[in-house]
């Protein structure tokens, strides 16, 4: 019996064992009934027809639709992860600053992006520049805007034509993912550094290190070990959120597997949904198992006395929830 | 330079405030229904996951692993396009009502998996000694659950549940993919409208502020409640 059950249940005696066996039988029957009802419903609507499942054994479907979609998903996820970690480290450390003029604006930025939905951020990047840029082009800032887009926009495919900026779906998805997940990672970084016992920084100061040295040589190396599992868990969230690109027609896995495949193969949405879900689940569970392994390793190791931040549900509390008691909170 | 100020002209925003508020009202209705239902689903799931019956434990674990690792967009699309449109499982002939309930069901099915995990880790925070002490003074299973374990476990999960609720409020926007007309759909319609030229930035600011009005007080409330009810150990 698993560990958590021990709090709730004593070791079963003969009567409890009989009851458990009965419950097992009843629940197995109920489960079987449920599966049967679902299967009958599928059958009624002709969803077991071979022609609906066959496309997924066809190599061309994988090579031309699903795998390129998966490639786009991974591309957005990797680019966004790297930038989000950068954003998270910068803003997380900024929130730990001793100077209020750095700490307060950084805190406002992080809390703002955590308080609004990711999809709204994606919409901001996707729709707003297109509407706003013609107006800016009329003003003295028009040249500045054009130079900025020409210089930096090219990396993400952002284009400017006669003063009108077009943001491709990829750039919009990455923009949203970076700001939202970067803000969550900033909270993770802050919590990670705060979780290092005070004695560590006191000892570092007492041997004559400056603020920079204390952070760089003593706190951060320990904090990275502590927060690694939480960071990898956040990567799973980020990867799942790339699916929001579906709404603005970014050609990622969901768009390719769930829209284009059914559009070309007799509208087999149920079958496509199952196949796409299996792909997502496989990738995410692989990533989660990395996080769990990191967590176990870091709990075992004696490199830091701080407690490892878990891979559990939503590592940092949502905005507002933690503010009251959190050390260094605004 | 005055044109730049026009970018922040809230005129078009307030001209269409009715449609935007309708969107937020749809978001709130979805949040309330999905919040209640996801709590119920989470409680059922966690009772499966910690039960002494292996079949139920397997079902609970499988459900949580599948739903937690599938994007919400896919879950909601499967509900609306798959279960509703293809398998013809409909709640109502009225398509608006039907998609509303499928959005509620999809969102709570997804959130329920997270609620289950939060509740389970709450049960794990109760030290084993508490349960052993309860048993040794002769409390029955339901008594020890009711008087010793759940009160402590519940207090430990208030803050995580608050975070999940806030995440869920933000996730209602994903229902835009599943044919349910809430805030994100309204915003997208205005943004797609070529005549809605000047109001883009105010619309974003307005929608963002609207969501902050929904999420931040919820966060403060749960933070306050969690602090107030914290178990001293």
From TrEMBL, chain A:
Membrane-spanning parts: 21-40, 74-94, 106-128, 160-180, 214-232, 269-291
Domain ABC transmembrane type-1: 70-291
Residue ranges, compositional bias (Basic residues): 296-305
Record keywords, A-Z: Cell membrane, Membrane, Transmembrane, Transmembrane helix, Transport
Subcellular locations according to the entry: Cell membrane
Membrane topology qualifier: Multi-pass membrane protein
Top-level lineage group: Bacteria
Stretches the record annotates as Disordered: 294-330
Family: Belongs to the binding-protein-dependent transport system permease family.
Protein name, UniProt field: Amino acid ABC transporter permease
Automatic annotation (TrEMBL), chain B:
Family, as annotated: Belongs to the binding-protein-dependent transport system permease family. HisMQ subfamily.
Main subcellular localisation: membrane
Limits of the ABC transmembrane type-1 domain: 24-222
Pfam families from the UniProt entry: BPD_transp_1
Record's keyword annotation contains Membrane: yes
Species: Actinomadura vinacea
Localization of this protein: Cell membrane
Record's keyword terms, sorted: Amino-acid transport, Cell membrane, Membrane, Transmembrane, Transmembrane helix, Transport
CDD domains: TM_PBP2
Topology in membrane: Multi-pass membrane protein
Descriptive protein name: Amino acid ABC transporter permease
InterPro entries reported for this sequence: AA_ABC_transptr_permease_3TM (IPR010065), ArtM/GltK/GlnP/TcyL/YhdX-like (IPR043429), MetI-like (IPR000515), MetI-like_sf (IPR035906)
Chain ranges passing through the membrane: 24-48, 69-87, 99-119, 156-181, 201-226
The keyword Cell membrane is annotated on this UniProt entry: yes
């Amino acid at each position: 019996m698993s560990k958590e059950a021990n709090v709730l249940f004593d070791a079963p005696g003969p009567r409890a064992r009989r009851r458990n066996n009965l419950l097992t039988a009843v629940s197995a029957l109920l489960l079987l009934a449920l599966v049967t009802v679902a299967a009958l419903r599928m059958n009624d609507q002709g969803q077991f027809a071979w022609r609906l499942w066959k496309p997924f054994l066809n190599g061309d479907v994988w090579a031309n639709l699903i795998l390129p979609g998966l490639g786009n998903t991974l591309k957005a996820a990797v680019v966004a992860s790297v930038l989000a970690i950068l954003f998270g480290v910068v803003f997380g450390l900024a929130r730990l600053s001793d100077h209020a003029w750095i700490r307060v604006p950084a805190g406002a930025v992080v809390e703002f992006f955590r308080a609004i939905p990711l999809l709204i951020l994606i919409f901001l990047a996707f729709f707003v520049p297109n509407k706003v840029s013609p107006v800016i082009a009329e003003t003295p800032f028009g040249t500045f805007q054009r130079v900025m887009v020409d210089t930096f926009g090219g990396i993400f495919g952002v284009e400017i034509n006669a003063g009108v900026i077009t943001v491709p779906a990829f750039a919009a998805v990455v923009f949203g993912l970076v700001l939202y997940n970067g803000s969550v990672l900033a909270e993770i970084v802050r919590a990670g550094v705060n979780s290092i016992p005070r004695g560590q920084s006191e000892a570092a100061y007492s041997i004559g290190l400056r603020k920079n040295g204390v952070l760089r040589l003593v706190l951060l190396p320990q904090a990275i070990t502590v927060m690694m599992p939480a960071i990898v868990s956040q990567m799973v969230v980020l990867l799942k959120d790339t699916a929001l690109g579906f709404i603005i027609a970014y050609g990622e896995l969901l768009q390719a597997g769930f829209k284009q495949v059914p559009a070309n193969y007799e509208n087999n949405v149920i079958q496509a949904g199952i196949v796409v879900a299996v792909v997502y689940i496989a990738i995410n569970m692989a990533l989660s198992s990395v996080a769990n392994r990191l967590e176990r390793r870091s709990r075992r190791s004696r490199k830091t006395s701080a407690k490892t931040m878990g891979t559990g549900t939503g590592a940092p509390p949502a905005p507002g929830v933690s503010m009251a008691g959190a050390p260094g909170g605004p | 330079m005055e044109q730049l100020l026009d970018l922040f002209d809230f005129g078009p925003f307030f001209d269409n405030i009715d449609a935007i508020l309708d969107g937020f009202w749809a978001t709130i209705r979805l949040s309330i229904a999905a919040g209640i239902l996801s709590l119920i689903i989470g409680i059922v799931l966690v009772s499966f996951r910690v039960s002494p019956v292996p079949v139920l434990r397997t079902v609970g674990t499988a459900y949580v692993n599948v739903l937690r690792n599938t994007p919400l967009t896919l879950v909601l699309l499967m509900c609306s396009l798959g279960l509703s449109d293809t398998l013809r499982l409909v709640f109502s002939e009225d398509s608006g009502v039907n998609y509303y309930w499928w959005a509620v069901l999809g969102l709570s099915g997804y959130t329920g998996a997270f609620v289950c995990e939060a509740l389970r880790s709450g049960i794990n925070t109760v030290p084993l000694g508490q349960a052993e002490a309860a048993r040794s003074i002769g409390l029955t299973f339901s008594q020890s659950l009711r008087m010793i374990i759940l009160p402590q476990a519940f207090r430990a999960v208030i803050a995580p549940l608050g975070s999940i609720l806030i995440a869920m409020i933000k996730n209602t926007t994903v229902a835009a993919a599943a044919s349910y007309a809430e805030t994100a759909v309204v915003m997208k319609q205005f943004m797609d409208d070529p005549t809605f030229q000047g109001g883009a930035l105010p619309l974003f600011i307005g929608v963002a502020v609207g969501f902050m009005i929904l999420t931040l007080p919820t966060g403060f409330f749960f933070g306050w409640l969690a602090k107030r009810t914290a178990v001293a150990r």
